[in-house]
Each structure stands twice: as structure tokens, then as C-alpha cells.
């Protein structure tokens, strides 16, 4: 193979691979968006996070497992999704955690151990009420405002239906009986 042919091949193969990846990703995204029926707004950006524009929530966000949550002494409705990280989180229950504010968007607390990130769903933009796991820091995040963007490092675990999440100081999470 001559030098000109190798150069042409070196330019064509990466472009073809990129086109294949983009085509595969857009097909999966539109299927997920059709399954969920909507897309969501925004996630909080943290120092060192990699963000990507995710087209919408994943199907895992819609399959729910009931949990019991108490925020500052008040019981609230909550569910976990069917992701491996959510199941790993459920294995830690019961938990009582003190919350602190982060980025005027979420309340965070550190878990006793890191959760699995294998089999993580596609990144999704967090919404107010989402319970999430931020893998690089190993913390739980309870969003009280919609985030700015999706991040592969942020795994949505479930959702909490409550008002005044922005002032929450303590959360207790238990398995539903």
C-alpha cells in the first residue's frame, strides 16, 4: 500500500467509526426519548466533571422500587429506579445522613461506601426531586433545583416527592416494608 493510500485510509477510518457511533447513539437516544415521552432540563456542574448533552431520561428512570424516606422528621413519597447502582444503594439501607448544600442546586451527603457504576444508564439531566449518586466523590445528591446538564459521573437513583428540599438538613432512607 502506497503512502497516499495509507493517508487516505487513516482519514477515512476514524470518520467512518465516528459516524457509526453517532448513528448508534442517536437511534438509542430517540428510542429512550420516545419511551419516556419527554426530555428534561438541566444538571449542576461540579469541578472536574465531564458533561455531555444527553437527549433525555433513560428508561431505567421509569421503573420504580418503593422506599421510605423521612426528611427532617417528615415522611415523603420516594422511589428508586431499577439500575444496578440503585440496587446497590438499597443494600445500604437503612441510612440516616446529614445533608449540606452544594451549588445552590442540591443537598449532598457522603455514603458509607462507594456504589457500583457498572451497567449505568445513559446520562440524564437531573430534575428537582431526583436522588442521585455522584461517583467521583462517592456522595448522594438530592436535587432541589433542576441541574444544568447531564454527566456520565452522575447516576440518577430515584426520585423524592417533597417540597422544601433546599432546606433539608437530615434524611432517613429505609426499605419499604
Describe this structure in words.
This protein is of the alpha+beta class. The chain is built from 2 helices and 11 strands. It has helices at 3-36, 84-90, and strands spanning 51-52, 65-71, 74-80, 95-98, 100-102, 106-110, 130-134, 139-143, 150-151, 154-161, 170-175. The longest helix is centred in the first third of the chain and has 34 residues, at 3-36. The protein is globular, with a radius of gyration of 19 Å. The protein starts with a helix and ends with a strand.
Give a brief outline of the structure.
This protein is an alpha+beta fold and 177 residues long.
Topology:
Elements: H1 3-36, E1 51-52, E2 65-71, E3 74-80, H2 84-90, E4 95-98, E5 100-102, E6 106-110, E7 130-134, E8 139-143, E9 150-151, E10 154-161, E11 170-175
Antiparallel strand pairs: 1-9, 2-3, 2-11, 3-10, 4-11, 5-6, 6-8, 7-8, 7-10
Amino acid at each position: 500500500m502506497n503512502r497516499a493510500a495509507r493517508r487516505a485510509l487513516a482519514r477515512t477510518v476514524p470518520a467512518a467509526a465516528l459516524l457509526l457511533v453517532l448513528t448508534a447513539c442517536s437511534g438509542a437516544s430517540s428510542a429512550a426519548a420516545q419511551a419516556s415521552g419527554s426530555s428534561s432540563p438541566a444538571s449542576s456542574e461540579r469541578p472536574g466533571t465531564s458533561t455531555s448533552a444527553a437527549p433525555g431520561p433513560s428508561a431505567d428512570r421509569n421503573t420504580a422500587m418503593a422506599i421510605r424516606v423521612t426528611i427532617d422528621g417528615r415522611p415523603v413519597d420516594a422511589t428508586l429506579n431499577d439500575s444496578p447502582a440503585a440496587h446497590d444503594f438499597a443494600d445500604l439501607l437503612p441510612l440516616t445522613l446529614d445533608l449540606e448544600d452544594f451549588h445552590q442546586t442540591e443537598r449532598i451527603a457522603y455514603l458509607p461506601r462507594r456504589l457500583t457504576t457498572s451497567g449505568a444508564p445513559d446520562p440524564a439531566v437531573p430534575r428537582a426531586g431526583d436522588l442521585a449518586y455522584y461517583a467521583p466523590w462517592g456522595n448522594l445528591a438530592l436535587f432541589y433545583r433542576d441541574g444544568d446538564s447531564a454527566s456520565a459521573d452522575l447516576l440518577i437513583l430515584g426520585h423524592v416527592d417533597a417540597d422544601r428540599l433546599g432546606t433539608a438538613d437530615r434524611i432517613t432512607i429505609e426499605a419499604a416494608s
